[in-house]
Amino acid sequence: MKTYPTVTPLILILIQWSGGAGSLSMLVRTILIDKKPEEVPLLVESLLGKVVEEFEHRLASQYEVMKTTSTDITASNFNKPLSEPISGDKKMEEKNIKMMKKDDCSHRSITNDELKDQSLKLQMILNKQQRDIQVLKHTIDATKADMQHMQTKFHEEFNNLGMNIHGLAHAASGYHRVLEENRKLYNQVQDLKGSIRVYCRVRPFLSERSSYVSTVEHIEDGNITISTPSKYGKGCKSFTFNKVFGQSVTQAEVFSDMQPLIRSVLDGYNVCIFAYGQTGSGKTYTMVGPKDLTEKNQGVNYRALGDLFVLAEKRKDNFRYDVAVQMIEIYNEQVRDLLVIDGSNKRLEIHNSSQTGLNVPDASLMPVSSTSDVIDLMNLGQRNRAVGATALNDRSSRSHRYPLFSFSFFNNIWSRNILCSQTKTCLITCSCLTVHVQGKDLTSGTILRGCMHLVDLAGSERVNKSEVTGGRLKEAQHINKSLSALGDVIASLAQKNTHVPYRNSKLTQLLQDSLGGQAKTLMFVHISPEPDALAETISTLKFAERVATVELGAAQVNKDTADVKQLKEQIASLKAALARKEGETEESRHSISHTDCSEKYITSSDLFPFTPNHRVGDMLVARQLMGDVGNIEARANSMSRQEKQSFSLDELLTNSPPWPPVISPTQNFRDDEKESGSGEWVDKVMVNKQDNINRVGSPLGCWEAENENSPDVFYPKYLQNSSKIYQEQSSCNMFMGGNRFNIANINDIDDLDVSTSHLSEPDFLWQFDQSKLSCITNGIGIGSKTKKTPSKSTSTPERSKKAYPMSGPSPSRKLGNGVGQPLHRNGRQPFPAETKRKIGSRK
Ligand SMILES: Nc1ncnc2c1ncn2[C@@H]1O[C@H](COP(=O)(O)OP(=O)(O)OP(=O)(O)O)[C@@H](O)[C@H]1O
To answer: What is the number of other CB atoms lying within 10 angstroms of the CB of residue 318?
Structure first.
């Protein structure tokens, strides 16, 4: 192939000019312009050959350069951290690119060697970057693997945590369940022990004293801490109760805590709730409510009754409940009926028969069927206080009043006393609302009897005699006496003394069944938060703590099942038969007529005038009607004697005596007189009675145990006519219930003891027991009674009717039947001096 001598310089020119396409084509044209066409291919071929050769050469040299420089670069970069080379390389790359561009721009001065070097360098960089990329990929893969591992681990741990939390939540709920169970068990233990429950309530500051600093430091569950200045010691005193309610606790919250207690009344328990605390500490507020009474701020009384009615309604398919109410007050050691409608200021007596709750049997017992009935009755009670004020030296109510009445707050008793003397108001020891409930199980016929005493006490502060005079002094002294007596009773009970001085005041007599009986008892202790009440607050809380330690023994339900009823009847008739037999052998030795006794016994029906069909508004009508009913009572009784093994409430209602009982003027004897007769002895008897109750659980067991331990001579005395008595009694009192009443009266020796010793007991008990005592003391038995018994027991209904001509309203009327002797001034049949003496000798 022919080569042209101009080719090499041409190529060089070409290369130099290769930066621009336009200039290259110009150059080609310049070279080829003077050439012949046939020379052009050869020229081009030669030119291209030269170009290829030149490039091969240059590539080879560049390859050499790259080889040497790459080893240098690898060696120098070997130990550098991963990120560095990358960024370094990047920089270098960028730099190279820039350089290349620069080279490209500066163009044509670049030699082939340089190009080779550059391409080699680029290659090296490329390789290195590829290696780095591989390393990075590995790192990312490893990191990803790590991440996944961590994620799975995290999920696992998260699940574990969830499970743990779930477990903890379960444990926590279990813990709460256990706590709740513990609380219930604790309460059950408390119930079994019969501990008096104590709830403490702190009154909020009244508006005029809102800036005061509270003495209540801290309240938590059942603990209350009172801050005390140094003179009281440590600076803080803590007290523990079943529950403590702070200042902001509402009436509804307070009630909800005691609701179960109130409901147990429907289950046949006796319940007593009494409010204690210094004057103005909120006792009446808790028990009744404030003067501007609304549904929201109603106190325990209204709520309790409302609840009873609601529950009774709910249970109406299974139970039929009858509810009746009594309202009394104790003023200057006199018990007064607040539900009388004839304005009479009759004084009442307190009897302690722990089974019925009818502690004041002579007080009006008003049937109610709704809360509004109760409100009506409370209003009536209030009006009666006003009536009482005239009769009792213009006295009117003290501050614990019922809805119609209001009384402004006074911080202490002194200011109250001043007010009392200015307004001629008075200080009463306590007011008591008693709710009696009798339920009949419609399927089994079981009778449940429960009662609830709601007692609002006088302010607990002591009155200094020197600061008050006249009527106020007397009232204050009575309050002092009553509250001290309450303190003594609590102290005796707390120390489990055998003798408990219940009879030291009317208040303790009234509360006897609740403090020492089978009742469930709750004391609401109230305190004021003001610093100037601190001394009273501390002493109130100390007293309350002592009350909390009193253990009464398990509360017992007042229930007569059909089986027990039947058994009792059988036992009663067997005992009666036995008594008759024994009585026949001794009849010549007895002078006291048992027949008389029986008749008087029957007259006790006066004590239970409750007729559930009456309503407050119908009282007058009811009285009238009952007066008429009284005439047919004897006939009804005699009929029941013939057929009776069970009785119905309707029958009782028909046979109920006139209502209310007419109190003989002679019954208003002085308490002092009456109390001088027995006093302490009764307390002891009551303690023995309690012991007996504790020893023998069931009424039947109690009955038998007592009879076992008693001299045999007891039985003929009051059992010979027991079938008769039993039958007649069964119609006397729907609350008592026929069998229970009989067993209690015929066989419960201690009850009889008490009634005997307690000269204020109803005639029937008194007379009955008198015979018993004569029996004991003379060792004669009951011959004379037995003597009359056969003829009695065979008497016809007509004869029976004749035998009870005075089954009217009062003992005095009944005793006016010509059977016997003139009445004692208290309306009782007097008894032989010898018997009296013997009663005394039993003290
Ligand atoms: N929890 C309470 N919330 C609001 N006000 C209350 C509360 N407790 C008591 N009060 C108010 O305090 C004042 C005195 O209360 P209350 O008459 O009930 O005291 P008390 O202890 O019954 O007094 P007394 O011994 O004179 O009968 C009343 O004005 C009453 O409304």
So the answer is: 12
The dihedrals phi and psi of 362, each to the nearest 5 degrees, come to -80, -10
Q: What does 74-128 look like in DSSP terms, one character per residue?
A: HHHHTTS-SHHHHHHHHHHHHHHHHHHHHHHHHGGG--HHHHHHHHHHHHHHHHH
Q: Of 573, 565, 528, which Cα lies nearest the Cα of 201?
A: 528
Which amino acid, 778? N
- Write down the ipTM of this complex: 0.98
For residue 339, give the nearest of 612, 652, 659 by alpha carbon. Answer: 659
CA 45 to chain centre: 119
Return the domain boundaries, the chain.
Answer: 7-135, 194-548, 562-660+677-841
Ligand 1 center to residue 745 CA distance, Å? 43
- Rounded Cα gap, residues 139 and 5, in angstroms: 61
Give the residue numbers of the binding site for ATP: 277-284
Answer for the pair 701, 748: CB distance below 8 angstroms, yes or no: no
Atom of ligand 1 nearest to the CA of 279: 25
Among 140-149, 156-165, 174-183, 825-834, which is the least confidently predicted range? 825-834
Residue 220 three-state SS? strand
Averaged over 161-180, what is the pLDDT? 87
499-542 residue pLDDT tens = 889 888 888 888 887 777 677 888 999 999 988 888 889 989 99
CB atoms within 10 A of CB 463: 22
Ligand 1 pocket member 283 (CB < 6 A): yes
Q: Binding site: residue ranges?
A: 277-284
Distance between CA atoms of 368 and 355, rounded to whole angstroms?
A: 22
What is 613-664 written as a DSSP string?
A: T--GGGHHHHHHHHHHHHHHHHHHHHHHHHH-SS--HHHHHHHPPPSSPPPP
Q: If you search the block for the tokens 């409901």, which residue do you land on? A: 263
Would you state the torsion angle of the CA atoms of residues 99, 100, 104, 109, taken in this order, to the nearest 10 degrees? 70
Distances (CA, A) of 271 to 194, 196, 364, 622, 805: 12, 11, 20, 29, 38
Q: With a 6 A CB cut-off, is 280 part of the ligand 1 pocket?
A: yes
Find tokens 């709710």 and name the residue. 435
Other beta carbons within 10 angstroms of residue 383's beta carbon come to 16
Helix H segments across 315-370?
none
Residue whose CA is at the smallest distance from ligand 1 atom 1: 203
Q: Mind listing the pLDDT tens digit for each residue in 28-71?
A: 777 777 777 788 788 888 888 888 888 888 888 887 877 776 66
Name the fold adopted by 194-548: Kinesin (3.40.850)
